[in-house]
Amino acid sequence: MQRLGSVSRVLKLLRFSCEGAAGHVPGASSTSRPYSHVHPQGPGSFGLLFDIDGVLVRGRTLIPAAKQCFKNLVDRDGKYKVPVVFVTNAGNCMRQTKAEHLSHLLEVEVSPDQVMLSHSPLRMFTQLHKMRVLVSGQGPVEEVAHNLGFQDVVTIDMLRDAYPLLDIVDQNRRPKSSIPPTKGLRPIDAVILFGEPIRWETNLQLIVDVLLTNGNPDNDWSSVQYPHIPVLACNMDLLWMAEAKDPRFGHGMFLVCLESLYKKITGYDLKYEALIGKPSVVTYNYAELLVRQQAERLGWTTTVKRLYAIGDNPMADIYGANLYNSYLQASRSSKAQKQAKSGGGGLEPSAENVDHGPKLTSAELGGASSVYGAEEDLPDNCSSILVCTGVYSRDQQELPSDTTQTVTEQHIFHGHRDFRFDPSLTQPSFIVQDVKEAVELVFQQEGWPLE
């Protein structure tokens, strides 16, 4: 069975893709360019990464501070002053749809090039694009998969139709009279989990069927062939913030159910070929490339050196930004070690092998065992800014203050199973009330005037 390569190949593809014509990212629109020329003060060297749910909106309702803050980000002509990318773990729509929705709410033009959904980096996982993939989620999942480059896509509904006896939890959906014939499908090569589905029992049942039959539900269940066919998951958020006063279950909760069911049946841990979306490093690396693309459209000639990631979820937005910052520091240390070698002909040490901060796990990198060394255009750092309008609330939550955690604190770890709990990575660089204060803080840090 063909397996995915390491994230090093993916990240190199990401960087190569932005160094082509006009810094164009494959699949990105090149027609909409809502950017002004160089700021009157001269080229800048920073970019902004905005989470959406809990930062700009609550469900379908705009957070008032969001519209106000964008007055500081665009000029009188509605053109952006600084590179802006919207990074969300949502994945139940197309980038164009999300961009249009944000444009309407914020009353500024948002290009699809500025929107990064949880599944966006899958565009670079070309090893899978010719495989037959089963996709799970809601919304136009088949269209999303094709847009990302996947050529042979099977949805849960298509699987139900081909095997009508598999989905029987809901008695109203069971065959009523005679047993319908099985149509059958060619074997499935991989499973992609885009986001939480509507009918959890249906998706859980059919995904387990596929995993236990080596991609062919015509076969009997068997756990002999282990590990199973590749599984890729986008969006690991256990909770997210909508209009309700308390957080709602996210796709991370669905993953917990799937992992528990698989282990309960087989005795083995469910294996992920890749975990995409915040807080994985590959997600922030892709976002950084989009920021660099926007900077080029601004006419900036200097490399983006500082990123500011604004979010509401300590275990997704803050953990991810801090994890990416650790990766950046490790890459810089790796580069320094390489330069310190006089006439050395050995291979450049990977970020995992650099003795600088915590070692990154395969899951944290995005589902691979190694990452390439530092390059000239990597940012110097990524600062995390936590707002109090979403998942995090000063009144209801207290961030861990050190790395010594009690058993109780470990039990309420909301991160994914395959991510280690490093309390220091949940500590934001800054805590502010809302996104307007966050943008004002960034401008103060950068010495830019508030207009």
TrEMBL record:
Annotated region (Disordered), positions in chain: 338-360
Gene Ontology CC: mitochondrion
GO biological process annotation, one example: glycerophospholipid biosynthetic process
Pfam families, sorted: Hydrolase_6
Signal peptide span: none
Keywords assigned by UniProt, alphabetized: Signal
Domain of life: Eukaryota
InterPro entries reported for this sequence: CDP-alcohol_PTase-I (IPR050324), HAD-like_sf (IPR036412), HAD-SF_hydro_IIA (IPR006357), HAD-SF_hydro_IIA_CECR5 (IPR006353), HAD_sf (IPR023214)
Family: Belongs to the HAD-like hydrolase superfamily.
Name used for this protein in its record: Haloacid dehalogenase-like hydrolase domain-containing 5
Species this protein is from: Pleuronectes platessa
